[in-house]
Amino acid sequence: MMKQHLQKFICSRAFMKAVLAVAVPLMLQQLIASSVNLVDNLMVGMLGDAALAGVAAVNRYYMIALYGTTGLCAAASVFIAQYCGANEQEHMKESFRTMILVACVIMVVFSMLAVCFPSVIVGFFTSDAAVIAQGVSYIRVVAWSFIPTAVTLSVYNAMRSVGETKVPLRCSVVAVLTNTFLNWCFIFGNCGMPKMGVAGAALATLISRVLELTLSLVALYRTPFDFKTKLTELFVIPKEIFKKIIVKAAPLMLNEVLWSSGMAMLFKFYSYRGSDVMSAYSISTTVSDIFFTLFAGMAAASTVFISQPLGADKLDQAKENGYHLIGFSFLLALIFGVAMFSASYLVPYLYSQVSMETKMMSQNFLRIQSVMFWIYMITTQCYFTLRAGGDMKHTLIMDSGFMWLINIPIVAFVTYCTGFSYIWIYLFGQMTDLVKLAVSYHLVKKEKWVVNLTAQRDI
After folding, report:
1. What's the CA gap between 148 and 341, in Å, rounded?
2. How far apart are CA 322 and CA 388, in angstroms?
């Protein structure tokens, strides 16, 4: 019986190759971005612990905006993918318009809050005056990059939902390389540029985001995508389509905002043990992002191999693919986990200007993540499976609901009610993922995600 149960997770080599063909370009895109972020982080780290912690605090705020927008884009992408499977081009265009407009609204709100209340935002994470000063200097400039990011995310997600992953990869490569070069120029005053410190890093990010937006729009203009729309028709969205997408997107957007704000809250808890813990957590997160690129690749594969068959009313194929993706993601997670553990011996020590204690802390964070990596991956793949079928309510329960009802209360108690060190606080938080894994797979087994959304006319 057990052997028969496990059999559904085993996929053919042909399936693996097809998945990798979709996933690898996006993984490479994310890998390049994460690698450049590591280089950027190393550059900022050369300015000292306060600069590194200040930028890390701002990035926690940015992640809330980014994940909220990503939630909207992910939900709209499910509709574009399923409408693509159903060959309904006009509905694809309407879904794309909805994605762009709502994404821009989200990012504008977060951008204006950052511009108007920079010290309040950074001060939420720390009371260290030096860290706050560095963070405020960074956020005042980088906040203006939020808006072009919204449009770029929309374009990229729409492209990936129809299986196009190479165009976003090329655009991102140019943008991140530009960002790295400009960081070198503006942070340290090279090539005749003023020496701006963390403000220079923010300016480099802003310029690279505008460049990336330009490149993505040019690629969109030159390629005959079925979802492509005229600028004059940007606001032409039938109420039925708008409502349909928003009803499905709202739980996912809420989930992403709650999850990212929950991560920000956890960052605040860790910072309670000192600014060196903030810096160490920032280093470990930047390094681990290189390996978490696997998540982005499997997200794209889930859209193509689950959402598109569902839209074409091939429910059995979509269900079979869903279980195969879980099995394949487990094998990949084992490989990535070993690589992450190996990287913990080297990468933290590339930060020459941070303290040895900070380096050792970041090393410990990385090793714990590497051991837990397979748990993170299977849980996340369950999430992608539910999302691909439009089961947004359960994604809300298993992700941010779990974080705020279980993970955060436990970590908060250990942080403020015990004298445990940072490593025990982190371990208590990570161990809750075992329960989350069990809940996630249970929701997948119920198979309420095996739904053709394009066939639902009244939602």
Report:
1. 36
2. 9
